[in-house]
Amino acid sequence: MKPLLSKITKPFLIYVLVVLVISIPVYYLVVDTIWKAELDEHNKIIAEKTAYGLNKLKLTDQKLSESIELWNSIQPGTNIQNIKKNDLLKDSIFTSEKQKSYTKEPNIDRFRSLSTIIYVNNKPFRFTVETNIEESQETIVVIAITTVFFFIMIVLGLLFINRRLSGSVWKPFRDTLEKLKKFNLNNETKIEFNTTDTLEFEELNRSLTKLIEHNISVYKTQKEFTENASHELQTPLAILKNKLDILLQSEDLTEKQYGIAEEMNKALTRSSRINKNLLLLAKIENNQFDNSEVFLFNTFLHHSMEALQEHFEQKYISVKEEIVSEVKVHGNSSLTEILINNLILNAIRHTPPHGSISVTLTGSVFEVANSGSEMLDKDLLFKRFSKLSSDSSGSGLGLSIIKEICAFHGWTVTYRFENNRHSFSVVM
């Protein structure tokens, strides 16, 4: 991931580079046009000065003819000729290229030329003057070097400015981000953001303050509901179950009445278990558990295996254990114990009589595998109240609780079916 300033700087530098590259020929055309205009003005001045100087000498026609001939021989950039019969007496400006006559090296020069009419001793003459134009290749090279120099200056300047700005302009944003990282909804404390003179950051802080206050209010409401529901629902359920237990112990019940009461007791027991599981899920989702404990995972696993030994024996299930010792984890011990029990109970519930279960614990993976015949539906596997078998004794929330506990700890739980065995793996 890249910082925001880097993402802004890169397209900006690309844009500047494109503009500067395009500017090279534009610079050349503009400078070349200006040079030609200046050279045209220069040539006109030379023509006027030449005519003025010759008139000032007041030469006779013979002397003037000799002077013009001498002029043409010693001034290679100018030429004075008598007017031809077909001359229209109009000025012309043009650019020409030709080889230098005084060197043997192949060197082509450009010339800006003016052909105009001057009057000497009241007689018209065709005066032609040409001035060398700077080589276009040299001009382009100079402009390109200058452009590259300024581009490097822009890049270095932007990097320097970005470095300075990232420490000053973005400081309020970083302060806000650090406070958000440390915010814990369980503490139910508001965040006091620092005031800033940047409009966008100030609006962000105000919006975050409103959002946090709303979340704290909703969290308090949900927490109070969870606590009240836990108390108010469990009490009448416990009373009903106690009354049913007393009723089942009565000797006056007929066999039919006893059967009805027994079914009611089973339904009530399942309702109580579902209620407890739903409350547990709500507490996990509301982050009402501490996540800072350090404990030995293998110790809780051994305790669960011992406590569930009777369940293994009732279905004649063979158990294979591969448990590494001293496996330390960070999290909540109560939730971890529930995770272990739910995974093993789920395996027992779906293992046929005389089947097998294997429990494996390595340094970072806890896996429970049991024998089976068909692969479970992965789309329904961790959904609440989804029935994966005909067994109606479960609450339909066991695997959902496993998934939520893993999410709470930052662990991942996966399922696979290989060689007629269901395997649930928790990567810690």
Automatic annotation (TrEMBL):
Record carries keyword Nucleotidyltransferase: no
Pfam family, any one: HATPase_c
UniProt KW Transmembrane helix keyword: yes
Annotated Histidine kinase domain residues: 228-428
EC number: 2.7.13.3
A single cellular component GO annotation: plasma membrane
Entries under InterPro entries matching the protein: HATPase_C_sf, HATPase_dom, His_kinase_dom, HisK_dim/P_dom, HisK_dim/P_sf, TCS_sensor_his_kinase
Catalytic activity: ATP + protein L-histidine = ADP + protein N-phospho-L-histidine
One GO MF term attached to the UniProt entry: phosphorelay sensor kinase activity
Record field: transmembrane: 12-30, 140-161
Chain segments annotated as coiled-coil in the UniProt record: none
PROSITE patterns in the record: HIS_KIN (PS50109)
Protein name: histidine kinase
Protein source organism: Chryseobacterium shigense
